Amino acid sequence: MPPGSREIAESCLDLLNIELVRSYSEQLKGRPELAGRRVEAIGFQVGQQLVERATKERPRFADHLEVIKFICKDLWSDVFKKQVDNLKTNHRGTFVLQDTRFRWLTRLSSDVPPPGTPVSPSDTPAARASAEAGAYLYFPCGLIRGALTNLGIPCTVSAEVNQLPACSFTIKIKP
């Protein structure tokens, strides 16, 4: 980072995401979709502000692919301390960002059910871990969507947990 710029401790972002999910899940028991939308909205605002700061000294991007590459390399490195492991596209407005070791999922335990989720005896540890991880991906989905929206690319962003701590983010650009 250039001199005079401000940094935030990595653990602060981890704890913010954990507390957002816990707090909204607790407040909105029985309404996990609403809790997810609220956490995603906060991530959206953070993403808009982060990308504004990160691009203020850069020339404009030429096309969507250049913006997505910026997200995968520069923004991802700033937030998650590494680049995206794989980027795939269908060249029709859909991009899949794959992270084989997503930092915010590395500390999740497969033994703990997600906040507010009923657990049946037939749940396997892997199934519980995937369900829990999904709740913690709303914030980064919002962050990505906020960054892209601020760069002039309206889109939807969804996430999928492959096998902890791997996940993928699917970006669909709106026409």
Automatic annotation (TrEMBL):
GO cellular component: cis-Golgi network; trans-Golgi network; TRAPP complex
Domain of life assignment: Eukaryota
GO BP: any one term: endoplasmic reticulum to Golgi vesicle-mediated transport
InterPro entries reported in the protein's UniProt record: NO_sig/Golgi_transp_ligand-bd, TRAPP_component, TRAPPC6/Trs33
Stored SUPFAM superfamilies: Ligand-binding domain in the NO signalling and Golgi transport (SSF111126)
Signal sequence coordinates: none
Family (UniProt): Belongs to the TRAPP small subunits family. BET3 subfamily.
Name this polypeptide is given: Transport protein particle (TRAPP) component
Species this protein is from: Klebsormidium nitens
UniProt lineage: Eukaryota, Viridiplantae, Streptophyta, Klebsormidiophyceae, Klebsormidiales
